[in-house]
Amino acid sequence: MDRGIIIKDGHLIDPSQGIDGTGDVIILGGKIANIVLKGGDTDTERHSKEQTQGTSVTGMKELRSIDASGLCVLPGLIDMHAHLREPGFEYKETIATGTMAAVRGGFTSVCCMANTNPVNDNAAVTGFIVNRASEKGYCTVFPIGAITKGQRGEELAEMGLMYEAGAVAFSDDGRPLMNGLIMRRALEYSRMFNAPIISHCEDLNLSDGGVMHEGHLSAILGLRGVPHAAEEIMVMRDIILAELTGGRLHVAHVSTEGAVRLIRQAKERGISVTAETCPHYFTITEDAVKGYNTYAKVNPPLRTNQDISAIKEGLRDGTIDVIATDHAPHHRDEKFQEFDKAPFGISGFETALPLSLRLVEEGIITVPGLVQKMALNPARTLGLQKGTLRTGADADLVIVDTKREFEVKPDGFLSMGKNTPFGGWVLKGTPVVTLVKGRCYEFGQ
Fold it and tell me: Are residues 140 and 133 in contact, defined by beta-carbon separation less than 8 angstroms?
């Protein structure tokens, strides 16, 4: 039987309650039973003290103790955009290996995209993912169902049945939905479930088989480029359709200055739109492709310093709500091909948090602001009862050493996907303990 855990003397940060101070967290039965803040008698602390009175001194002594002094204790991170590959592509990743890597990265919940084989476009596949994650997963998995059957963009999938089976959102991610009428119908239909439509914004006619950002470097390398406009035109279309339908639009993996500007304007007009970006889009530019580095091949492509600046400003001012990983593991042999033939994607679970903490060092956002982008906002966007340290919530937490430096060694990734452009980088900040519903995973200091 779980004897319970007390996390002592950590720096507790929980934007959902305005908590930012030293304290203890008591976990019983996989739930957060209590938070006791130290130094000052806030409303939260008074409430915690009242609850603590029901716990005997003997009972407190029987709890397993974790010393978190000098460490940050955060709500477990939620990745609302990842690819776990199972079913069908288990040679790239499995639900077991993917969630194990996610937990190491501080994620306690992962939302997996529908581009599996078979495609997650029906309740049977959705149910399989939920059941497999329950059996083999190291963290909670929330499936994202396909918008269209087979992700072909021709006919709406059975969104209602997938929702009942556990889907929390709908997306044809990886295959942009070119048919505006289908996108309109999807936004209308999704209102029945209050579930967002996650849009991969890319005009395939403009991207035209491009493999990197269109610009001076693509010309030098002789690689077909993808212009900013390929993303921005579709962002604009989907914003217009969201305004028309009143549906909930979530723009995936924002990579351009223009897309940030369009989303900001849409929010100012009261349109129901949220947006995400990924660490690689605010950390590295198209220059990472030099030498035909396929580990830097991602869709949408890495852009320019100007785009990075705009994305950082979008994160700072709230235009971009969420930082997701777009974790896209591939087999080594797939990336060891000619640049044109290699698949898009970066393995992102195990580097996302330290790369995002660089935003804190730069003064772009605070640590509470980062928690909001990586835990609270994803939960709110998807309607999940997660992303908080509130009493009674699932004991999903991550204890982070924000000062610890480490070298990124892809061969040591727990993910089967070793495809990262950050190999050899020295980063700062890493989870040392992740708790999923009270189950404790320790990674050392």
Answer: yes
pLDDT score for 289: 98
φ, ψ at 294 (rounded to 5°)? -70, -20
254/267 Cα distance (integer angstroms): 15
79 a catalytic residue: no
Q: How far is CA 14 from CA 154, 231, 373, 376, in A?
A: 43, 34, 12, 9
Q: How confident is the model at residue 39 (pLDDT cuts 50, 70, 90)?
A: confident
The length of the chain is: 445
Antiparallel, parallel or unpaired: β 212-213 and 197-199: unpaired
> Of 173, 307, 326, 401, which is the active-site residue?
326
Q: Enter the tokens of residue 251.
A: 């723009």
* Rounded-to-integer distance, Cα 177 and Cα 202, Å: 8
The rounded distance, in Å, linking the Cα atoms of 108 and 129 is: 16
Per DSSP, the chain holds a count of helices (H) and strands (E) of 15, 18
> Domain 74-382 falls in which CATH fold?
TIM Barrel (3.20.20)
**What is the greatest pairwise CA distance in the chain?**
71
Where exactly are the structural domains of the chain?
74-382
Span 189-224, pLDDT tens digits: 989 999 999 999 999 999 999 999 999 999 999 999
Average pLDDT of the residues in 391-420: 98
Residues 6 or more apart whose Cβ sits within 8 Å of residue 435? 5, 27, 76, 108, 395, 396, 397, 398, 399, 441
Q: Is the pLDDT of residue 16 over 80?
A: yes
